[in-house]
Amino acid sequence: AMRLVVAVLEPYQLDSVRQALAEVHVTRLSIADAHGYGICHQSMLSQQVVIEVAVNDDFVDRTLSTIRAALVTEHSLGSDLLYTLPMTDAVQIYREVRGPEAI
User: Fold this and answer.
1) Helix H segments across the chain?
2) Nearest to 31 by CA among 68, 74, 67
C-alpha cells in the first residue's frame, strides 16, 4: 500500500525538513507555496509551504517521524500540520511503471 504524506509548515522550516528527509533517503517530493489561516494567524493569511511525499507503507513512519523531529527542532509558531492520505495508484509516466514500484 502507498500513502501521500502532506506537511504544511512555515517557509523558514523548509530547508531543515528537506535535509532531514534526504538523510533518511526520502528524496522524491513536491514543494509548493501556499497561503492559509492557521492557529496563530486566524485573522490574516500567512505564507506557508506544502511538502507532498508519496511513500510506500514501509516508509510512512520514517517519513512522519523525520518531518516531526525536524519541525520540533525549529522554533515553530504552532501552525505546522502533517496529514497522511491513502493512495490507490502511482504512475511513472516515463517508464510506464504503476503502483508501489513507481514510488
Assistant:
1) 14-23, 57-73
2) 67
pTM: 0.85
| Dihedral angle computed from the Cα positions of residues 28, 68, 18 and 30, in that order, rounded to the nearest 10 degrees | 40
Contacts of 46 (CB under 8 A, 6+ apart): 35, 36, 37, 38, 40, 79
- Residue among 70, 49, 56 nearest 6 (CA): 49
Output DSSP code: residue 19.
H
* pLDDT tens digits for range 71-96: 887 665 566 789 999 999 999 989 88
